[in-house]
Amino acid sequence: MKEACIIFIFPGRELGVPMKILIILVVVLTMSTKKAKGATRAFFVFGDSLVDSGNNNYLPTTARADSPPYGIDYPSHRPTGRFSNGFNLPDLISQHIGSEPTLPYLSPQLTGQKLLVGANFASAGIGILNDTGVQFVGILRMFQQFGLFEQYQGRLREEVGAEEAKRIVNGALVLMTLGGNDFVNNYFLTPVSARSLQFTIPQFSRYLITQYRNILMRLYELGARRVLVTGTGPMGCVPSQLATRSRNGECVAELQQAAQIFNPLLVQMTREINSQVGSDVFVAVNAFQMNMNFITAPQRFGFVTSKIACCGQGRFNGVGLCTSLSNLCPNRDVYAFWDPFHPSQRALGFIVRDIFSGTSDIMTPMNLSTIMAIDSNMY
Ligand SMILES: *[C@@H]1O[C@H](CO)[C@@H](O)[C@H](O)[C@H]1NC(C)=O
Ligand SMILES: *[C@@H]1O[C@H](CO)[C@@H](O)[C@H](O)[C@H]1NC(C)=O
Does ligand 1 lie within 6 Å of residue 144's CB atom? Predict the structure, then answer.
């Protein structure tokens, strides 16, 4: 403590002019290096387990992917907190835009220059609503993820100055993945839930959309200017639902219908807020269709099945969670689903391909290649 004080006070009082010039030069040089390093676009990630890269490892929650065989195909072959056998959706997007992977915001490694790459605030188990995922206890709900995003921006300003920090945030690509848990881990969690007594599925979907709109507008206020917003996947087709609610492995109609009510409302809402803010800030990603492609024709994508999870137990390997005691398939690349809820790394690759080059019916109003081309002139 004492030493720090001495160093701090001493130069300010005693500096001669040449020394001052030198210091200014050093500062200028450091600033320009920082700018050059930050030249690749920052990437921010918010949402649930589909995009959590390890925040829950640092939280008191049961929603975690920090033990084997999670991460078995990751370069380290170790669990990282990603709900995947290898890379997850944000990793694959980072790779495509030529950035290093964004660290979980709670990781102690996220300091200094690493802040310029962006940050991942996602937390497995959360939803649009605060009462979604209560069973998982200490997870980061959306308002908390945004609180941390504000804290991040303070740290970024300290690192690069206010003007550059604003440029980085405004110029960033943002991914927001939410909504599945509001159905699976809330409305449909128990045969009768508080939300299912309160709302029909169309009413609940409209309620979710009004809350989601507030979330996206808050994200805009916080400086986001290019946001990929994924709709819910085909929730009725995941091995977990096949195991518990399907007779012969057909997708569960009630959940599929819920997704097909919610997703078009989401597209419409993103259109409305884009016209409100006067720019195509929000891009709706039709994750439902992207998943259905390989779920309905797994062989065409080189999968032997889209019904049985690689890691799990019971019917369709869809009962309970993937743990070290579960059945584990030898080749993860031939399974569309890694665990009872999450696609395999290879399946995610097909989703990312569609995010990049999909037509405007699945990437509305435009795909990520178009976004990258437009934005390269802007920031
Ligand atoms: C969730 O809780 C926070 C903090 O109490 C509140 O600001 C926010 O409006 C709530 N969100 C919803 C969707 O109810
Ligand atoms: C999407 O991306 C591809 C490039 O991969 C481009 O040729 C195509 O026109 C884009 N489609 C739309 C609808 O933006």
Answer: no
Kindly give the number of the ligand 1 atom that is closest to the alpha carbon of 211.
13
Radius of gyration of the chain (CA): 22
Domain 41-235+242-289+361-376 top-level CATH class: alpha beta
Q: In this structure, which residue's CA is closest to atom 12 in ligand 2?
A: 359
pLDDT digits (tens, 9 = 90+) for 295-324: 999 999 999 999 999 999 999 999 999 999
> Look-up: residue for tokens 């091995």?
239
What is the number of the ligand 2 atom nearest to the C-alpha of 358? 1
Measured CA to CA in angstroms, residue 176 lies from 208, 225, 245, 266 at distances of 15, 13, 28, 12
pTM of the model: 0.89
Concerning whether 342 is annotated as a catalytic residue, the answer is yes
Give the distance (Å) from ligand 1 centre to CA of residue 130: 6
Distance CA 175, CA 170 (A): 14
Domain residues of the chain, as ranges? Answer: 41-235+242-289+361-376
